């Protein structure tokens, strides 16, 4: 089946630093990639939708200057949390749809970000 | 806006018991409905889906029927196994494949031998 990976799986950083999270589709080309955020005991909240080669579309309330998304190729999207603060600590999950057809979203295993 | 409400967990059952996890939704138009499962340490996996009213999605013994009149998509399984222990998420998508999903909070299911 289609596999999506994320790197790193866990990251701890100091307040004020920036952190980059990678999302890769390993065995398919992804037309569209999505970034979600999950707080403890809460549902996944869609942050943004990115299409290869174009600017990401952010959901209402998500700061685009804070969460930079780059979808440079059909197999890679990155989320950079800039000037991270403790309130940015969360579980970040990406998903991707196959450019070859179908609308199923394949999810990565997530990245746990802790900002000290 | 769109929203999904599912029963709070954890839900603890004995092996071979009947399972129901309730899910109701609020959405404009005619959304597609999904159940995802997350096993420990893994990413979410699509379990089943239904794209229009009265459709029944099924997979691995699990079933859910798209009920437009009650805006529900309850997940059922006749006889659960220990290996079914996981977190189950109900979700909807209002638009097409290029749109993101709206999720419920997830239900942690624990099956005891």
Compose a concise summary of this entry.
The complex is a heterodimer of chains A (116) and B (113). Chain A is an all-beta fold and 116 residues long.
Q: In words, what does this structure look like?
A:
The complex is a heterodimer of chains A (116) and B (113). With 116 residues, chain A is mainly β. Chain A has strands at 4-7, 10-13, 19-25, 30-38, 44-51, 57-58, 67-73, 76-81, 90-98, 105-107, 111-115. In chain A, strands 2, 4, 5, 6, 9, 10 and 11 form a 7-stranded mixed β-sheet that branches. Chain A is globular and about 40 Å long. With 113 residues, chain B is mainly beta. Chain B contains no helices and 12 strands. In chain B, strand 5 and strand 6 form a beta hairpin. The model of chain B has no long low-confidence stretch (mean pLDDT 93). The chains are: A mainly beta (116), B mainly beta (113).
Query: Shape of chain B, please?
Result: globular
Strand content of chain B: over 45%
Structural class of chain B: mainly beta
User: What is the percent of helical residues of chain B?
Assistant: under 10%
Biggest sheet architecture of chain B: 6 strands, mixed
Quaternary state of this entry equals: heterodimer
Work out the radius of gyration of chain B: 13 Å
User: What is Rg of chain A?
Assistant: 13 Å
- Which pair of chains forms the biggest interface, and how many residues does each contribute? A-B, 26 and 21 residues
Query: Uncertain segments of chain A of ≥5 residues (pLDDT<50)?
Result: none
Question: What order do the helices and strands of chain B follow?
Answer: EEEEEEEEEEEE
First and last CA, distance of chain B: 41 Å
Shape of chain A: globular
Largest sheet of chain A: 7 strands, mixed
Count, helices of chain A: 0
Average pLDDT number of chain B: 93
**Percent of residues of chain A in helical segments?**
under 10%
Flag low-confidence runs of chain B: none
Give the count of helical stretches of chain B. 0
Distance between the termini of chain A: 37 Å
Mean pLDDT of chain A: 92
């Amino acid at each position: 089946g289609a596999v999506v990976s994320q790197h790193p799986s866990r990251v701890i950083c100091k307040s004020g630093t920036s952190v980059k999270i990678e999302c890769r589709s390993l065995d398919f080309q992804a037309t569209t990639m999505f970034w979600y955020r999950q707080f403890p005991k809460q549902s996944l909240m869609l942050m943004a939708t990115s299409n290869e080669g174009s600017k990401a579309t952010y959901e209402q309330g998500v700061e685009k200057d804070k969460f930079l998304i780059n979808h440079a190729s059909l197999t890679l999207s990155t989320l950079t949390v800039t000037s991270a603060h403790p309130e940015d600590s969360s579980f970040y999950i990406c998903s991707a749809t196959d450019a070859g057809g179908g609308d199923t979203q394949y999810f990565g295993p997530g990245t746990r970000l802790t900002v000290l | 806006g769109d929203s999904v409400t599912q029963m709070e967990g954890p839900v603890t059952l004995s092996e071979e018991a009947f399972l129901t996890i309730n899910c109701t939704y609020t959405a404009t138009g005619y959304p597609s409905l999904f159940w995802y499962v997350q096993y420990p340490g893994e990413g979410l996996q699509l379990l089943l889906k239904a794209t229009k009213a009265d459709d029944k999605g099924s997979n691995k013994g699990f079933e859910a029927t798209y009920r437009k009149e009650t805006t529900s998509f309850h997940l059922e399984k006749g006889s659960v196994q220990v290996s079914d222990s996981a977190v189950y998420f109900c979700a909807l998508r209002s638009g097409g494949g290029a749109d993101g999903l709206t999720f419920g909070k997830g239900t942690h299911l624990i099956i005891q031998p």
